[in-house]
Design a protein that fits this description.
Blueprint lengths: L2 H15 L2 H21 L3 H35 L10
Length: about 90
């Protein structure tokens, strides 16, 4: 067997032994490495544009969350009082 076959076999054994938490950690680490490499390749102007988009998306998400909470609150207030006991 050549080295590549042995390494591939070992890699497959490692992969098969991973649980879901470990897989998520591997993917997160890979994503962070990719994001760092991408960020390092950006110009200052591109970095500023991305930062603006991130802040804009955060504001939109916060507004949507607030709207959802208000809608849920209104729905709760409109709920009929079925559970109230009538005392005679």
């Amino acid at each position: 067997m050549d080295k590549n076959e042995v390494v591939l076999e070992i890699a497959n054994d490692i992969l098969n032994s991973l649980n879901i938490g470990q897989i998520v950690n591997v993917l997160r680490d890979h994503s962070l490495n990719q994001a760092n490499a991408y960020y390092d390749g950006l110009s200052d102007e591109q970095r500023s544009e991305i930062e603006e988009k991130i802040l804009e998306n955060r504001k939109k998400a916060e507004a949507a969350q607030k709207e959802a909470e208000e809608a849920a609150s209104q729905k709760e207030e409109e709920k009929p009082a079925e559970d109230l006991e009538v005392v005679s």
